[in-house]
Design goal:
- The chain is mainly beta and about 120 residues long.
- It is about 0% helix and about 55% strand.
- The protein contains no helices and 11 strands.
Length: about 120
């Protein structure tokens, strides 16, 4: 297992979702690796949320940018996602993933097992 994510499974609307992903097997600062968050709402396709690069640069989906923050703790080899002001529409399985550049774009080749997050009052 290279990646394992965890976090609260149930949140109330307006709360902030915090998820953490640990990478086993090499530093997350290793050149040319990118550490992303992707989610899949029930009955829908995958949605890319954002990424942090091996240099610590972050990039976010325009639709989620105002509510999303990705950070890392290199001493623990972990990276984290925060999503603020959640609504029931943020209910999804959330995945962390390890990517590298393939053909000019980041391809995610290793994925965590996913963690279910439900937002409900």
């Amino acid at each position: 297992v290279q990646l394992q994510e965890w976090g609260p499974g149930l949140l109330l609307p307006s709360q902030t979702l915090s998820l953490t992903c640990a990478h086993y097997g090499g530093s997350i600062t290793t050149s040319n690796y990118y550490w992303g968050w992707i989610r899949q709402p029930p009955g829908k396709g995958l949605e890319w949320m954002g990424v942090i690069s091996y240099e610590g640069n972050t990039y976010y989906s325009p639709s989620l940018k105002s509510r999303t923050s990705i950070s890392w703790d290199t001493s623990k080899n972990q990276f984290s996602l925060q999503l603020s002001s959640v609504t029931p529409e943020d209910t999804a399985v959330y995945y962390c993933a390890k990517g590298t550049v393939l053909g000019g774009v980041v391809g995610y080749v290793y994925w965590g097992q996913g963690t279910q997050v439900t937002v409900s009052s």
